[in-house]
Design goal:
- The complex is a heterodimer of chains A (about 475) and B (about 500).
- Chain A is about 75% helix and about 0% strand.
- By secondary structure, chain A is mainly α.
- Chain A has a two-stranded antiparallel ribbon.
- Chain B has about 500 residues and is mostly helical.
- Chain B is about 70% helix and about 5% strand.
- In chain B, strands 1-2 form a two-stranded antiparallel sheet.
- In chain B, helix 1 packs antiparallel against helix 2 and helix 9 packs antiparallel against helix 14.
Amino acid sequence: MMTMVFDPASWLILLPLAWATLAFVLGAGRGARLALVGLGAQALLALELARRVRDQGAHAHALGGWPAPLGIELAVDGLAVVMLLMTALVALPLGLYARAYFGAKPKGGAWFWPLSGFLIAALNALFLSADLFNLYVTLELLGLAAVGLTAAAGDRMAVAAALRYLLATLLGSGAYLFGVALIYGTYGTVSLAALAPLISAEPAVLLALALMVIGMLLKTALFPLHFWLPPAHGGAVSPVSALLSALVIKASFYLLLRLWFGVFEPVATVGAAQLIGILGAGAILWGSLLALLQTRLKMLVAYSTVAQVGYLFLVFPLATGVSPEAGVSAWQGGIMQALAHALAKAAMFAAAGAMIVATGRDEIVGLSGVGARLPLTLFTFALAGVTLMGLPPSGGFSAKWLLLMAALDSGQWWWIVVMMLGGLLSAAYVFKVLRQAFLPAPGGSAVGRAPRALELTALALALGGILLGLFGAQPLALLEAGGGR
Amino acid sequence: MSGDSLLPLAVVASSFVPGLAIFFLAESRHRLRSTLNLFGAFAKLALIGYILWGVLHDREFVFTHEVLPGLDLVLKADALAMLFVTLSAVLWLFTTVYAIGYLEGSPHRSRFFGFFSVCVTATVGVAMAGNLFTFFLFYELLTLSTYPLVVHRGTEQALRAGHVYLAYTLAGGAVLLVGTVWLYGIAGQVDFVTGGVLDHLPAESAPALRIIFLLLIVGLGVKAALVPLHGWLPKAMVAPAPVSSLLHAVAVVKAGAFGIVRVVYEVYGVEFAHTLALLAPLALAAAITIVWGSLRALFQDDLKKRLAYSTVSQVSYIVLGTALFGPVGTIGGVVHLVHQGIMKITLFFCAGNFAETLGIHKVSEMDGVGRRMPWTTLAFSIGAFGMIGVPPLAGFISKWYLGLGALEAGIPWVLAVLAASSLLNAAYFLPILYRAWFKEPPAAWPHEHIRARRYWETSRLLLLPPLVTAAATLLVGLFAASSWTPLDWAKLIAAREYLRWVP
């Protein structure tokens, strides 16, 4: 049957591909305008898809009308649509931000629009993929676009960081691909739906799971595999840093979440989950500590990402082998943390970028006088900090609350200690920046202005993090309508 | 959503919205800024007046919003909330007037008044919180919004004080959060309900409830400056005088003490807390704080530091009253919430006046200041006598009920604590008064900023607020037995909290 029904899911992949290609042809100026139209349309498409999931629940969609195994099937469920919404709603303000940013500092701007279009297309495709191999393809495309964007800053530091990033991302997806091959060799299919009833604890399957997990941990930069993240995220130009930290690392986390609590649920063990949790705890403490020790602003924010990634991985020990209530709470908390961090970290990198444009330098000591000259941007940084510290009302607090509930419900009090310490450490590094910015500017050094569009888009993202805390029930309801776990 | 359910939100918004607007004002727009400030303060008072009238006619004002499944943000106007809201709204008005005068011509006023308004918003939210989560939300907002006020001057000393302040309060907040989450895990949504909500829980949860109580009290005790969690308060006195008034009388310290009152009466229920044997240790902690704070106050030469230690001691009267089992003790604790606020704000206003007008920061510089600034010194004297507990001032009423409450609860040693503390209060306040009134003034004041003009010993905006609050100190004591006084309201609250109590 070939009825032509309007389908937002496939457009979410095609649209960014289209404007990315056109932006490449048209150049940075007109390309940017086109991209912004595309990002606006993408937000509407994601909202429309969310509405459908809310009303009709999860559903699958065959691309071009060809069902699997011949064609490519897209699966839309609660988790996927929440991630698509996150991508659309973070990318739109970041697009506006990037346009203003490259207007002030054109370096690297020519490559930004085509590459970020491919990056967003890859993200959307990844969230919609329904089989292991398509997931691999989108993962690889995402990694390459991200590496390209990192290198686009053009200086030696950025290229070195990009090469390191390339190594990490290729190793990560290589390990994943090896796992896919093992699964295909064992069961003869890569479709998640077809695999679900088949998976059992055979050695090849366990090896495949281990390889996939390690690959994803590397790509999400979980401690101690985070070596590539700070130079890449801290060295890229600010709009790119924001995209990478807010969205790209969420993709590999999403994939792991899907696999661990989906097809691999029967073979996932409590011991392995605890081990991942311990790495997460290490990330929280080590990342926060190093963030506190940084002297450069963007490196501080990048190490903060290393720490915040740790919270994401607490979902594994908190939701594996526990009571259903604790499991749901942890699962919701993990996803809430992904959303909150996306908004807050995009806001924080954007605010940091505006401060750097104004002061002309990246050192934290150079921030004196920013409080008086750029109060709005400093306020944005503080609001984003509220989410990262997990103070109410914010998405970060809601996430922490859900994770704490899960920890109490399942009697795993040690994660509570970690989360509390992490919150206090993040307060320490956030206030390190705020405190410096409050100081009066030393004589002779003038803090310039930042374009208003930079300040306002960053603020919008930070406010998003706060609103997520006040209206967190909505995304959770969407998650539930789309099938929950 | 009806109008009545939006009113509590409007009370919170009446300072928040002007506050946000003020952030965006240019530094030079001082007239518009003052207008916005005063508009917010009066709008809040009008709303509160309307709600008080409604509460009297048995109307309910509750705002509910679901934040997460099973986690609601609730703002509610009950008797205890209205007591604290009214206190903070009235004192906010005076502090705003005072701050406008105090900061005249100094830099960063838009930032200051913006955070000032957010700070009061947080306090009102703390007061009207209808459950433990909402309370926590505004409690943390209070921490964040007072930090920029503490470090406002931007000096090295101020930044260090801000550091200490954050370290204490954020750590306290974390402990409070753990207690809150744990309690939600055991009991579901923890609403503030007259008489408490936990006594139906099975007996085997008693040990957990005791630990949670400890966590909650430690978390709240940081802001309430319970010894040994009080270290931040004397350091924070580097902040400008209006901020100190806010910290000590209206907002931060009060939020901690108020939280303890809520937890004991409306989460655990005073009778259930008594059954769990939680009240006696709390009374002991309060007693230690009272004596220790007074002892430390004796040795401070810095006037604001002496007042800060005096706050440490005085706020624990509230905690002590809360921990005395029996309605009379409750009345003493709850009424002191208001009385301490009025008296302490008077003292800090006066200390600010001495500093701003003559450059006096130390007790040893106060010789003869009563001749140069008789009105301010008079207000200071009334505040000080009130703190000592001289009848018929406000402090006397508090101490009278606390003493009777101790006898009623069968803990006579509390009387000794009260007596010792009153003696110590006299020992650290009377020498100040003696110097101010009876010693010869020096040839020149340390740094005379403002010259006397005809009847005005200092700027009008600085002088009027302490005179009004000093008069209030006298009036709420003198007419304590009439209706609509703090004492009357405290009696109403106490009568409701005891469900099965038989004297």
